[in-house]
Design goal:
It is a single chain. By secondary structure, the protein is of the alpha+beta class. 28% of the residues lie in helices and 24% in strands.
Length: 166
């Protein structure tokens, strides 16, 4: 099994979308393409893993600086095609991107995993990532009273569940 890494560019939209459709089946392809256009021109980078020449896994990342952790690599949109999981390809991609983070003088690497994505969480733990906080999300497209106006907790459908169109 020959593994190669290839950095993708804006021209590689179709390949990126192929992976994102698998990762976010609840988001339409048209919306993913619109978001790709915005994200790819805002400093987001993307690497694909080719296994024997076949695109098999994808990992996106941002390099930024935050007060609490300094310069860091934020990994996102990390996916291996379902038919190619458990072959070590995701780990190879992660190792490749973590080395890139070190080469870019990052002090920290982090990624988010949806609460329902137990497989992603296990992957992160096996790779040495630690849970250090919670990622809170508020859907600003829905009219709502101030979230602080009430002490009652209201269940909210997660944004990734397909309830957004933009």
């Amino acid at each position: 099994m020959e593994i190669k890494f290839q950095d993708l560019a804006h021209d590689d939209e179709d390949l990126v979308i192929e992976f994102l459709v698998e990762l976010y089946p609840m988001v339409s392809e048209a919306v993913l393409r619109k978001r790709f256009s915005t994200i790819s021109s805002a400093g987001w980078h993307c690497t694909v893993v080719l296994v024997d020449g076949v695109p098999t896994a994808l990992g996106g990342y941002w390099i930024q600086t935050r007060f609490w952790c300094g310069r860091y690599m934020y990994l996102d949109h990390f996916v291996t095609h379902k038919s190619r999981r458990s072959l070590g390809v995701g780990r190879a991609l992660l190792d490749h991107l973590l080395q890139r983070a070190r080469d870019e003088n990052c002090e920290t690497a982090c990624f988010d995993s949806f609460i329902a994505n137990e497989r992603g969480q296990k992957f992160g733990h096996r790779a040495g990532f630690e849970n250090v906080g919670l990622h809170f999300v508020l859907d600003l497209t829905k009219p709502t009273a101030s979230p602080l106006a009430s002490n009652k907790t209201k269940p909210v459908a997660p944004l990734w569940a397909g309830n957004r169109t933009s």
